[in-house]
Amino acid sequence: MKVVSYNLRKHRAINELAALDERYTPDLICLQECDTTDLPEHVGRLELATSTSGNRLGLAVYYRADRFEGRATRAVALKKSLHDHLLRPAHERLIGVRLFDLEAQRELVVASFHAAPLTALNSLRRHQIRAALGELQLLGPGLPTLMVGDYNYPVFKDNLAEKVREVGYELNLSDSRTYTRYKFFRGHFDLATSVGFEIDRVETLPRGSSDHLPILVETRYAAAAVAEEDLAS
């Protein structure tokens, strides 16, 4: 399964999505900082599953309708930073979709996430990440879950990875930096967090008109998760 995550930088990169679909043939595309009033219903072979409604800078998920069936969605407002209270850029910072994979004949959860900006503390972003993962478990208890997006976490990622492992998830960085706009805030901002999946590769894609570079996550269901489902059935 291939998943693209892209922060569109206030919707500037919206016209690049069709080319990403054509070149990389993803099964899903997860977006951050998009104008949800100006989203197409289809991008190449992908269909809009859901988007946030309460945000100035929203989230959205597209999926291949020939491979997946949408089962449920969940948009969540997470703990706010001072920036959020003053400027109100984002009310809902998580959107999750529970899907049925027609090829694998199983359910999964995929989510787009956008953490608080760099003006907030890492402790707040860790709180948001933990809360987001908890909300996704409510959407699909025990299901393989992949959360991608802009984590806004420039330093101390080892500490973040440890905190994520404590709640049963794995954190994956891409093969090169995804944010290079400012000299002192360059790094891997766009990440993948998962449970029940084996991440084969996370690739940083070429730069477009956004200040973030898109990432491509190539993953498969973990053997242990498949075995557990077989036993349950």
Explain how this protein is built.
- By secondary structure, the protein is of the alpha+beta class.
- It has a single domain (2-232), classed as Deoxyribonuclease I, Chain A (4-Layer Sandwich).
- The protein has five helices and 13 strands.
- It has helices spanning 17-24, 82-87, 122-139, 157-166, 223-232, and strands at 2-7, 28-34, 42-43, 46-51, 58-64, 68-76, 94-101, 106-114, 145-150, 170-172, 190-195, 197-204, 215-221.
- The strands form two sheets. Strands 3-4-5-2-1-13-12 form a seven-stranded mixed sheet.
- The chain is globular, with a radius of gyration of 16 Å.
Number of strands: 13
CATH-defined superfamily: Endonuclease/exonuclease/phosphatase
| Overall body shape | globular
Oligomer state of the chains in this structure: single chain
Could you tell me the mean pLDDT? Answer: 89
* Count of helical regions: 5
Strand line-up of the largest beta sheet: 3-4-5-2-1-13-12
Largest sheet: 7 strands, mixed
Could you list the spans in which at least 5 consecutive residues all have pLDDT below 50? none
Helix vs. strand class? alpha+beta
Helix content: 10-25%
> Helix-strand pattern, N to C?
EHEEEEEHEEHEHEEEEH
CATH architecture: 4-Layer Sandwich
N→C terminal distance:
23 Å
Q: Predict the CATH topology.
A: Deoxyribonuclease I, Chain A
**What would CATH call the class?**
Alpha Beta
